[in-house]
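Anyone? Bumping this.
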Amino acid sequence: MYKYDQYDQAMVDARVEEFRDQCRRRMEGHLTEDQFKPLRLMNGLYLQLHAYMLRVAVPYGTLNGQQMDALADIADKYDRGYGHFTTRQNIQYNWIKLEDAGDILADLAKVEMHAIQTSGNCIRNISADHFAGAAADELVDPRPYAELMRQWSSFHPEFTYLPRKFKICVIGADKDRAAMKLHDIGIQIVKNDEGELGAQFYVGGGMGRTPMIAPMIREFVPLDQLITYAEACLRVYNRYGRRDNKYKARIKILVHELGKEEYTRQVEEEFQHMLDQGIEPPFAELERIRPYFADPAFETGLSDDIDRSDPDFALWVDTNTHAHKAPGYVSAVISLKPVGGIPGDATAEQMHLMADLAREYSFDECRVMHTQNIVLPHVKKADLYALWQKLEAAGLGTANLDQIGDIIACPGLDYCSLANARSIPVAQKIAQRFEEKGQSNTLGELKLKISGCINACGHHHAGHIGILGVDKKGKENYQLLLGGSEGEDTSLAKITGPGFDEDGIVDAVEKATEVYLNEKQEGERFLDTYRRVGMAPFKEALYG
Amino acid sequence: MAELISENPAEALASGDVQFRFRDDELVSDPAVTVDAFVGQSNAVAVRIEPGDDARELLPHLDRIALVEVNFPAYTDGRGYSAARILREAGYAGELRAVGDVLIDQLSHMKRCGFDAFAPDAPLNEDDAKAAFDRWPHVYQSAADDRTPIWNLRHER
Amino acid sequence: MKILTGNNLETGAVVWWEGKGWSLHVDDAVDAGEEFETLLATEEAERRVVGAYAIDAERLDDGRVRPAHIKDRVRALGPTVRPDLTLKPNDPNAIAEVL
Ligand code: HEM
Ligand code: SF4
C-alpha cells in the first residue's frame, strides 16, 4: 500500500490547518455561508437533512487496518457509531458537527487520510478496480497510476473551479469492475503491440439526469505522457464546458455537443502545446510509487482445496470469493447487505472487526467496493472457514455478492436533502421479499440499484434492474428500469413505464424476476434474458 | 518572483484597487480594453479578459501588452485560471491581474496560475490573505509559478 | 401556515423558529406569517441559523405541527430507517406519521 512521505503528510496537514482556519472565519462571521459552502464542500462537508455530513476519501478504495480502525473511531467519537460506505468507494458520516470538523480531519491526517476534494466542482477522489493487485485476470495493478493522479489532482491550481464535479476511474483489466465508462474520465491501462504499457482514455461518461457512456478518445497514451494528456482533457473542459446551466455542465455534455471527434481534436491540440511545458512528473516518480503496490509475501506451495462440508460456508465461498492470481489465495467479499439491513452501513464495532480480519488474514489490507461491500483482497483458502465463521458471528457473512439481495442504495430521503423518495426501505423490503420466497440465492447474478432521485448516486441507470425514486404530487413514487450494466458491456437501463408506490415497486421487481424465470434459457443471467427477449414481455407482466 | 507588496492598508482601498502585487515595476494605470477592441486597435497596452474570451487571441500581440486583467465575475467561474496559464505558457511576462470576485481562499491557486496582481472588488483582510498566499508548504504539480513540484523535489540528487 | 426552519450553524441540528429563537422540536414552531425575509436574513447574518427557509405546515388539533412536505417531516423526526436515532425513539407511531 502507498505510504505518505514527508511531502504528502505536509500537504494534508496544511489542508487541515486551512480548513480549521476557514471554519473559524465562518463561525466568527468573516465568511458568509455563500462563501463558505464551496470551501466546506471541498473538504467533504455537506449540510444534509439532519446535520452536517462528512465524506471521507478512500483513494482507489484501499485501506489498511489502522485506517479502518480510525474510521471506526470517528464513528464512535464524532458521529453516532456508524458510517455509510458509498458507490464512490468512500465513507460518509451523517451526524457531524461543524465545530468538530477540524478535529476529525486532524484525526484522519494521523493515519494518512483526508476528505480533500470529496465534493465540489473539482477532481474528486479517484476510484479503481476493487480487486486491483489481486484479480487473476488483471493485466497490471491500476493503483500506481491512480496514486499518481491523486497527487496531480490534489489542490490543482487550474482545476478547482471547474464547471462541475469531475470523477476519474482507473482499471487494469479487460473486465470492468469499476463502472469505468460511466466516469468523466475512465482509464484502462493496456499493453500495445510492442508490449509497452499505456493508458486508454475514455472521456465523457456519467450518470445523473443524462446518463452517457464514455467514448474512447485515445487508444494509447504512453505512460510518460499520462498526466499531460489528462491535463489537456481537463483544460478543454474547464474552458468550454457549459457554465450557464448546472444540469448541462458535466463534461459528458461538452463531449456530446462538440462530438467526440471535435472534442478529441481540441484535446490533441492542447496536448501538443502542453508537451514542452514541463507538466509531466519525472518518470522516476511512477517508479517510486510502483513498489508500494508490489505483491505482499504470498506463501507458495499452498493447496487450492477448500473443505466444503458445511453447506452454508460452501454457498458463501461460491458467491463471495473471487479468483486470485496467487495459487492458494482468493479475494473474499464481506457483504454489508444483510437481509433487511441498510446497504453499505457498518457500525464502529464491525469496522474494528474488519480491521482485525484484514490484519489477520489479508496482509493488513482491505478495499471498499463501489457495490458498498468490503473486500479482503488476499486470503489464504485454508483460512476461509475461520474467516467466514467470524464474519457470520458479526452479521457480516451474508452470501449474496452480485445477487438480488446485494442491492446498491443511495441514502435517499432518509438522509439526503436532494432526494425525492426513500431508497433504503425499498432495498430492505426487496431483500426481505426474496428471502421469504427462498430465492435469495437462486436467481443468479442480478444487480439491483436504487437512487432516491435523478442524480443517480445509486447507479440505477447501470442496474440490471434499476429503481428511481420520483416525487408524484408530494408522494414517493418509484420508476422501474431494466437492462443496465456497468461492466465491460456497459449499457443504460430503460424505464419500463409508469411508476409504483413503495409496495408496488417491490411487487414489480418480483414480477420482473418471474418473467426472467419463465423466459430464461440455459446459462442465462437476468441481463442476458432481458437483452434477448427485450422489454415487451416485462411490460406485459407489469402493466398488461 | 518578487516579494508580496500590499498597496495601502485595506481600509484605504476602494473596490477594484490593486491590493496585492508581486512585482516591483510601476503599476500600469491605463484603462484595460476588451479583447475585441484590443485585437482591432494598435495603441492600447492594457486588456481585460472576460470568462468567455479566448486568451489565445492575444498571443500574437504579447509584446505590446503591459497589463492583462482577468475578470472573475463570480469566483466559482474558473475559466480565468486557464486563461492565465495560457498567457504565461506563451511567455507573457507583463502584469497579470485578477479582478472582480477575488477572495482569500482562491489567492494561492491564482498565484500558481501566474497572477501577480490582485484587485478584489471587496478589499481583503490582510493577515488572512498573507496566510493564504503562504498556505502550501509544497506543491504537487508544475504550474505557471516558479515553485518546484514535490515530484521533482523527491527525485533531485 | 408558514413556519421557518434551518440548521444550527455549529452543530448542524435541524431547528424551527419558535418566535424568539430556534427550537429542536417542530411542535414549537410558530406561524411566521408572510413577512419573514428580513427575519431570516438577520438570523443568518447573526449566525444563529444556516440555510433557513420557510415551508408550509399545518397545526393539528392536538397542537402538534405537521410540515406539508415529507422531506421536512423526515427532517423533523430523523431517519425513518433508524427509529433509534430519531427524536422519538420510543414512539411506535412516529414513523408512520411521517409518511
Ligand atoms: C447525501 C448526499 C449526496 C448528495 C447531496 C449528492 C449529490 C449528487 C449530485 C447532485 C449528483 C449529480 C451530479 C451531476 O449529474 O452533475 C450526484 C451524482 C452521483 N453521486 Fe451523489 N450525492 C450524495 C451522496 C452520494 C452517495 C452516498 C453516493 C454513493 C452511494 C454518491 C455517489 C454518486 C454517484 C456515483 C453519482 C453519479 C456520478 C455521475 O453523475 O457521473 N453520492 N450526487
Ligand atoms: S441519488 Fe439523489 S437521493 Fe440519492 S444520494 Fe444522490 S442526490 Fe441523494
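Late reply, but here is one note on the structure posted above: Chains C and B do not touch (no CB pair under 8 Å).
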